[in-house]
Amino acid sequence: MSAPVTVVASWEYRSSVRARWVLTMAAIFGLLCVTVTLLAFRTVRELGLTGIGPASATLVNLGVLLPSLMGLLLGAGSLVGAREQGMLSMMCAQPVRRSSIAFGAFLGLTGSLWTTLGIGYGVALMIMAGVARGSDVPALATLIGATFGVAAASVAIGIGVSSLVSSRVQAVAAGVGLWIVLALGMDLALAALAPTVHLGPVGLLGTILLNPLESGRILALLGTNFEGTALGPFGAYLISGFGTVGSVLLLAADLLAWTVLPLLVARWALPRKDL
Amino acid sequence: MAKGAFLRVERLTKTYRSGWGLNDVSFELPGGTIAALGGPNGSGKSTLLRCLAGLASYRGSAWIDGRKVDASPASRETIGYLPQSVAMPDHATIGEVLDLFADLRGVDRSTIPLPGGFVNDDDVRIGTLSGGQRHRVALAVALLGRPHLLLLDEPVANLDEEGRIAFWSLLRRLRDRDGVTSIVSSPSPSDLRGVADRALFLDDGRLVLEEDLTGPAPLVSEDDPDDLMEARP
């Protein structure tokens, strides 16, 4: 890692963890984690179940939807916001590559988002600690890993957007629009198309890999249910086709691709932009 | 490159969708020159400085001390740039801002050749500073690493009289002691009276007057510059 990347990452990290709305989101995420965990435990006990697997499964949607929105908004506002302030001009006037600035911003913002998520999950894990068993560790690790992966991919997509748009308003609109498409739109479109278009397991897998939020969600669910039964026929196809480890690796690789590709877009677009 | 030319600009052209940013601008500056860059609003002053700082694409070429200005980081090693307006984050301290840019340049903070007290103490937050004090911090950033070429976009716009005097005195000292070349844009070039050695006037993206202020006659006068001459430093 070159020094300018580290310098920018450190600056972005400090800047974003000090921003009030990031702190507010951290508090909201922590509160939601605690609430969801407590409610899930209550239900789990009422059903006579044990362990934390069922409770952690309830955190999956929370861990996919909120961090992705935060990541998209953080990333989308980053470069274009600095550009509107004039800070990006001053940074790019230094003897550093613009791609280093984009990558540094990604690392710093991802770090701050991971800190936020870490606080939220940390509180939830303290509650779960009393009933957790050794066998629950993989489920929790996969859930947290999937959430962190979705968060990183969302920040990267946001930074890719930020390198292309010309104002912060456009960036926020694009970030929110993308989140709606990824979180809801693709599911709704699939549901609407299902009766008329026969996608089959391979087609379904393709549409899932086109959506990092869906990859993260399925990855997290696989962690709580390694047989994939919670995912129905698709889970069965995934496990039978790729095995448990192969499925986890496939989905993790998809999240990695969703992180790398937008950063390559930023690497291409930012140097071509007039500041 | 002509002997003694530190900065050479050849047919520099920048077009926007709305029209010309810069239109076939050519000039040379010897090392150790302070050039006043004047012209009406929208004449291309900021665009010229941004092109030379490597922040905007253009046609034509620019050479700094024999090295062609391009997108490589090395092109910017000897340049200090101050944009017209900068909004640094309120939560950051002066020390953090200066550290950020010193680290990006790979230089020591002690390289800022500013008189003591020109910038507030390190631990003061940007959010507590006035517009003029923030501008002083941005000026300090531009001076990090002892650049050989300073591109300053309206550097005294937000400074009080004391700050302006200190700044002009500093520019002269950098020129006389270190041979630093500066291009200083200003909507009212008369501010640079007694400071600049050379005047460059832009109008509608074209260089319409280039004048050696140490000599009697304009070097280039493409248009009738009467109206601009009134504002001559």
Short description:
The complex is a heterodimer of chains A (about 280) and B (about 230). Chain A has helices at about 5-20, 20-45, 55-85, 85-90, 100-130, 135-165, 170-195, 200-210, 210-225, 230-270. Chain A has about 280 residues and is mainly alpha-helical.
What can you see in these coordinates?
The complex is a heterodimer of chains A (275) and B (233). Chain A is mainly α and 275 residues long. Chain A has one domain. Chain A is 83% helix and 0% strand. In chain A, helix 1 packs across helix 5, helix 3 packs parallel to helix 6 and helix 3 packs antiparallel against helix 9. By secondary structure, chain B is α/β, with parallel strands linked by helices. Chain B has one domain: 3-Layer(aba) Sandwich (Rossmann fold), CATH 3.40.50. Helices cover 23% and strands 29% of the residues of chain B. In chain B, the strands form two sheets. In chain B, strands 6-7-8-3-9-10-11 form a seven-stranded mixed beta sheet, sandwiched between helices. The two termini of chain B are 28 Å apart. Chains A and B meet through helix 1 and helix 4 of A and helix 2 of B.
Count every beta strand of chain B, where a strand is a DSSP E run of 2 or more residues. 11
**Average pLDDT for all residues of chain B:** 84
Could you tell me the CATH topology label of chain B.
Rossmann fold
Distance, first to last CA of chain A = 25 Å
**What shape does the CA trace of chain A take?**
globular
Please tell me the total number of domains of chain B: 1
Provide the succession of SSEs of chain B: EEEHEEEHHEHEEEEH
Largest sheet of chain B: 7 strands, mixed
Number of helices of chain A: 10
Strand tally of chain A is: 0
Q: Gyration radius of chain A, to the nearest Å? A: 20 Å
CATH architecture of chain B: 3-Layer(aba) Sandwich
| Poorly predicted spans of chain B | 223-233
**Spatial order of strands in the largest sheet of chain B:** 6-7-8-3-9-10-11
Give the helices and strands of chain A as they follow along the chain: HHHHHHHHHH
Strand content of chain B: 25-35%
Helix content of chain B: 10-25%
Which oligomeric form is depicted?
heterodimer
What structural class should be given to the helix and strand makeup of chain B?
Answer: alpha/beta
Distance between the termini of chain B: 28 Å
